[in-house]
Design brief:
The chain has 125 residues and is α+β, with helices and mostly antiparallel strands. It is built from two helices and six strands.
């Protein structure tokens, strides 16, 4: 995951713009006023601090750059992965909603055209 472009997870986190506050022990990002706590990521038999996504954090441009922990099905272990937030427009419901908005716009334009045609016919009579 990190070895293609970055030597360590620390380099990867810094490249995403995260700043580690040593005194208060949390991560900050210049594009957000939130604080993000950290979690240890085991990589190459070393522990690295990475920003942790929490449900208490507001979803903004920065939350996609955080990490989350995923508990295995057995519940005995967990893994740390990049947070990939769900995009509403890519879901089935989001696609249907886009089609619905398109339909509403088409119906609105059709009604306007019918009104215009009706008014022109009234004026001409």
């Amino acid at each position: 995951m990190y070895s293609e472009q970055y030597e360590t997870p620390d380099d990867f986190v810094e490249a995403m713009g995260w700043i580690w506050d040593e005194e208060n022990r949390y991560f900050k990002h210049p594009k957000s006023n939130q604080i993000f706590y950290s979690i240890y990521l085991n990589w190459n038999n070393k522990k690295w601090l990475v920003p942790l996504y929490s449900d208490t954090n507001e979803v903004d441009r920065v939350t996609a750059r955080t990490f989350k922990y995923v508990v295995s099905n057995s519940g005995c272990s967990y893994s740390v992965e990049l947070n990939n937030p769900l995009n509403f427009n890519d879901t089935r419901r989001g696609k249907r909603y886009k089609k619905y908005l398109k339909y509403l716009k088409m119906m609105f334009l059709l009604k306007q055209k019918q009104k215009k045609d009706f008014l022109l016919s009234v004026i001409q009579d």
